[in-house]
Specification:
Elements: E1 3-9, H1 18-21, E2 29-35, H2 43-54, E3 62-63, E4 66-67, E5 74-75, H3 80-95, E6 106-107, E7 112-114, H4 122-125, H5 130-146
Parallel strand pairs: 5-6
Antiparallel strand pairs: 1-2, 1-7, 3-4
């Protein structure tokens, strides 16, 4: 990865802030913008991580304890090629019955807006924050175990 930025995607710049997004009326999804070097990690590898470690792609408007449209499972492809690849990837997972339920992840369009500075690197800054310990630390462990060649501490 060359950078990872927490933020909001799918709504407008005017309401791209935590207070507005958490009201569930902005059309935004809480999102992460990943800038990567394709010679280091492929789009396919990023999708594998997204679908196996980052979250449960079968949940509708929910991720773990967080509920609402802003927690929907969505991918915001940055090119027609990424969109086609992600659509085919999801179709293959569904056809293989990789999950017990159909994948709810949607492919969407829309701009990305960085979140407030206190959201950036939150888990690294607050590793013992209860939400991080319960919900995010297990994902880091799973990333290290399932993708050891891509994991960097």
């Amino acid at each position: 990865m060359t950078s990872v930025v927490s933020g909001y995607a799918g709504g407008s710049a005017a309401n791209a802030n935590y207070q507005a997004v958490s009201s569930e009326g902005t059309r935004h999804a809480e999102a992460v913008k990943i800038t990567y070097d394709p010679s280091q990690v492929s789009y396919a590898q990023l999708l594998k991580i997204y679908f196996t470690v980052a979250h449960d792609p079968t949940e509708i408007d929910r991720q773990g304890p967080d509920v609402g449209q802003s927690y929907r499972s969505a991918i915001f492809p940055q090119s027609p090629q990424q969109a086609a690849f992600a659509k085919a990837f999801i179709a293959r997972l569904n056809a293989a019955h990789f999950y017990n339920k159909p994948i709810a992840t949607r492919l969407e369009t829309g701009g990305f807006y960085p979140a407030e500075s206190y959201h950036q690197g939150f888990a690294r800054k607050h590793p013992y924050f209860p939400y991080i310990v319960v919900n995010d630390r297990p994902k880091i462990v799973a990333l290290r175990e399932k993708f050891p060649t891509l994991y960097k501490s």
